[in-house]
Amino acid sequence: MRDQNQAAAVLGVEGVSVALSGRQILDDVSFTVGPGEFTGLIGPNGAGKTTLLRVILGLQRAARGTVTVQGQPGSRRSAVGYVPQKVLLDPDMPIRARDLVALGADGTRYGIRLPSRQRAQAVREMLHAVDAERFADARVGYLSGGEQQRVLIAQALISRPRLLLLDEPLANLDLRSGQEIIGLLARLAREQQIAVLLSAHELNPLLPVMDRVVYLAAGRAASGPTGEVITSEVLSRLYGYHIEVLHAAGRILVVAGDAADEAAAPALPAGTG
Amino acid sequence: MHQLYTAVFEPGFFGSAQVHTAVAIGGLVAIVSAVTGVFTVMRGQSFGGHALGDVSAAGGAGALLIGLSPVAGFVGLGIVGAGVMDMIGVRRLRGRDLATGIVLGTAIGLSALFLHFTTTTSATTGAIQQVLFGSIFVTTSGTLLAVAILGAVALASIAAVCRPLLLSTVSPEIAAARGVPVRRIGLLYMLALAVSVGLSSLAIGAILSTALLIGPAAAALRLTTRVARALIVACVLGVLAVGLGVLLAYDSYYWGSSHLGLPVSFFVVAIVFATYLASGLPAAWAGARRRQLRAGPSAGRDKIAGQAPHEPSAAA
After folding, report:
1. Are B315 and A138 an interchain contact pair (Cβ–Cβ within 8 Å)?
2. Helix (H) / strand (E) containing A30
3. Which of A197, A239, B230, B291 is deepest in the core (most CB within 10 A)?
């Protein structure tokens, strides 16, 4: 329903194709994300998830296709927040959680930073929003993976974007921290009407909160409500061989279908949750 | 009291014009080195900083050979070196390491060649001494002015881009996504670093400039939790090390009966090294106290002690 209304979409990806050094990474990928929607970008390693996020951010040029943010072509930096996969926060860096969030607010400005009560207040509010006040004054390098994710999310949200992109935020987290982060993102999406596009190779942790799914395999994408996309028919077409989708104990298992195909089949995402 | 005073400040220390110039030039160089050093340590480019010192040495040696001003030689070739390093290896970390190594090797080769010609043709064996250990006691006031201007330019460049530079140090991806020209900011920083290293090579010598660049910054980063404070602490430590080094070198002239005096650079580097070692003490004490507390009844929430931030993934 929501994606019928193209004009209201926060993000529109239309026919995007990318080839890197002769290899086709993305092939005619299209989908939209509406305001406040929680969208999972699911796919196995190497499916092109990071490349797709980089195209949306304007860091990677697409050979074909367009990206619109809030109805306007091209990436609009102020409207998009980004949490990359690898942020190596060194314990030796003298940067507190509070400082990292402040950098999200004015890290692109030139000249020396002058003290600002307004900015300090905004940083406090943001740390509160992600429940990170407890460790606001700790060096980010000393924080746990889950705590670092909260700080990075606050850093991305302080510029008040309408769309938040997260690249594999659950990759280095234990199950419980992962669930806390998902819960936090779902709450932010709902309360502040921020559209969330989160990439993951694991489908099941996102099932309770996901409004829509964009499933990426072999550079091609299928998108829509989870129930319509994660089906044997759709995924078989995407992968190019028979895929079985099994439901068990409220979880979804995606497995290669035919015994003949299994030997050749890559390890599938969402299979073992 | 007076005896103690003269034991610390040997006769003529405060009256000597040489000492005045040495302290001024050393102080300036210490401040510029400390500020660029904090970013160098955070960006993990200490090796690059050292390589630029060797490039500066080649420039200094070349300038001596053809009779150019040493400032132009040290700083000029350093800037060229920074540009070459940026050109060869910007893509990846390994590329950067490689570029640094190649530039460093070439620079040392050039230095050796230039110094060979200088010492064989004009018979000034002082050239080697001057390039490798600096010439803080023999600089002219004209050099001092050039050092002040160049140092100010380097500091102003870093001040102008400090926030984008810090953001791209923390995460080049986030910085690029926010529209920071990461590559150009990195190059500007490298140029400022080249100027800073060139100036300190001139003052305390090419092979010891790394110590003044990295030592006070690394110590400051261990002692503080904020970049702004680290910058101030690094400047204070650097200036103290140079000031004390000049004093001890001056005094060393009166030690023993040979009246040869020891090089300033040695004292500066020794003080910097001692400072760095001492800067680890607060953390070591805190660690020992934590272990003591932990040996007691409660383990407490205590993940601070240098634990790797990434726990193994259990999300299979």
Report:
1. no
2. strand A23-33
3. B230
Q: Where is A165: in which H helix or E strand?
A: strand A163-167
Cβ pair B226:A172 closer than 8 A: no
Nearest-CA residue of chain A relative to B309?
A: A144
| Residue B303 covered by a domain | no
Alpha-helix residue ranges (DSSP H) falling in chain A: 49-57, 97-106, 117-129, 145-157, 175-192, 226-229, 232-239, 259-262
Instruction: Judge whether B302 is closer than 8 Å to chain A, CB to CB.
Output: no
**Alpha-carbon gap: A192 to the closest alpha carbon of chain B (Å):** 21
Q: What is the pLDDT of residues A29-67, one digit of tens each?
A: 999 999 999 999 999 888 899 999 999 998 999 999 999
The two structure tokens encoding residue B125:
């064996």
Q: What is the pTM of this model?
A: 0.86
DSSP three-state, residue B135: coil
Q: Say how far apart CA A65 and CA A113 lie, in whole Å.
A: 40
The predicted complex's ipTM stands at 0.88
User: Is residue B307, in this structure, part of any structural domain at all?
Assistant: no
Q: Which residue has the tokens 């949200």?
A: A157
Range(s) of the domain holding residue B223: 20-295
Q: Is residue B2 part of a domain?
A: no
Domains and CATH numbers, chain A: 2-225 (3.40.50.300), 230-273 (no CATH)
Query: Is B166 in the A-facing interface, judged by CB distances under 8 Å?
Result: yes
- How does DSSP classify residue A115? P
Rounded to the nearest angstrom, the minimum Cα separation between B242 and chain A is 25
Contacts of A8 (CB under 8 A, 6+ apart): A2, A34, A35
- DSSP labels, B147-211: HHHHHHHHHHHHHHTHHHHHHHHH-HHHHHHTT--HHHHHHHHHHHHHHHHHHHHHHH-HHHHHH
